[in-house]
Amino acid sequence: MFGMSIQPSPARSERRRNTLSLDVVLTEAVAILDEHGERGLTFRRLTEGLGTGPGGVYWYVQDKADLINLACDRVVANALDAVPEQPGEEPMAVLRGLALAVFDELDRHPWAGPHLTSNPGQQNTLRLLDRFGRLVTEAGLPADQQFYAASAVLNYVVGVGTQMARALSRVVGDTDREDYLAAAVARWEELDEQEFAFVRRVAGTVREHDDREQFTAGLDLLLVGIGRAGGRA
Amino acid sequence: MFGMSIQPSPARSERRRNTLSLDVVLTEAVAILDEHGERGLTFRRLTEGLGTGPGGVYWYVQDKADLINLACDRVVANALDAVPEQPGEEPMAVLRGLALAVFDELDRHPWAGPHLTSNPGQQNTLRLLDRFGRLVTEAGLPADQQFYAASAVLNYVVGVGTQMARALSRVVGDTDREDYLAAAVARWEELDEQEFAFVRRVAGTVREHDDREQFTAGLDLLLVGIGRAGGRA
DNA sequence: TCCAATATAGAACGTCGTTCTAGACCGTGG
DNA sequence: CCACGGTCTAGAACGACGTTCTATATTGGA
């Protein structure tokens, strides 16, 4: 589960001319995950879509876990590519933009979230953490707080982003995510009024506003803390 | 995956005298998860330890996913029980204590973390969110920020807690988590110095300090933001 | 042209989650 | 005291899955 291949199994130095490739495999895997959800991704379906056998896939991938990790890695890569590094910009603004890029990508690929949360095993999640770290550093945060500030931001973005992505997700295919939000809110409103006083109170207001807006509003709460600890607002 | 049974499948109203029970099943499941990790929890092993067949387990549980959800729910319940509600205390102090209770429980049951992050499907995770929400409300946070403040705290606690729990976890049994931290730090120090400037810089300092201390230090960063947005420090 | 390395297909294996069926246990009403 | 229906349990059986193995095609360099 950990320490999985970051490079494909064999040395990847030279160019090859094969009809199959890691890129093709991952593209198909992502497509299946998008359409059928995580439980819908099987080697049968994958190899069928690829017109090949398991042997072909296992050449590029170590494991099913590895396959999913690499697929998640690609999702994060999309978000990183959407916000190129441009030195000199206001760090907090860049951070906000990066967070929204991740949010949008999680909206497109809701299956990825749970695998991202709290394990920077994947190269690009680590890259994301690194960019958050450099940004809070730029913002003037003291050295001993930088790592946990960056972690806090990463966990908020991925955690809350995943939650909202699921809530927003259209009903698709035979996947397991149904009318998640409706069901969730309905369940919330059936809860004991005393024991769940808070959740019941806010249940209604959660869906009234634009989700991206609320997402960044929550993020700003973190950033205020980070900004105060550093020099700026 | 969602909307799973919170009560066991049949009506649970009357007392029964059976040798098996949901409680016994979950206790065994948690024990196996602790010892062998998530992949080590199979129905064979579970029924063997229980001295029963699959039929017995399926009477109390809908699914394997349901089983794991219920096991996670119990873990969160432990944390909640460790910090009983006592009105009148300083809300931020209570919040910090609750966060540490979750941290300790995740340290004991590292498999639970990933299932908790970003899906309050389980009753007790929702209960945890509710308590965080009431605490930030007590701290004077404006109404429109309460939900996302509570979410930020929940995600930080579970996300970072899971990460650190894995890092701390002793090597046990045949589970898949090895010397996670050593491997992680070693990998971090092999990264490209330019691309991962931040991670490489902080890699060393991460393990120098006490983990619980750093965990709360990061949490305080959030709480500062929340406190400033509200009335207090 | 031949050889080793690279890359692929498909059959086969063992294990898993789950379902099905038969029956044991038990409180209750006749 | 005895059947009877609901509650609960054991084990056999099933189909699907991840994975491995073997055999073979394809290639670039000697």
Automatic annotation (TrEMBL), chains A, B:
Cell wall biogenesis/degradation listed as a keyword: no
The yes or no answer to whether the keyword Heme is present is no
Task: Look up the domain of life of the source.
Answer: Bacteria
Where the record annotates domain Tetracycline repressor TetR C-terminal, the positions are 92-226
The UniProt keyword set, sorted, is: DNA-binding, Transcription, Transcription regulation
For this entry, the protein name equals TetR family transcriptional regulator
Q: Supply the source organism for this entry.
A: Microlunatus ginsengisoli
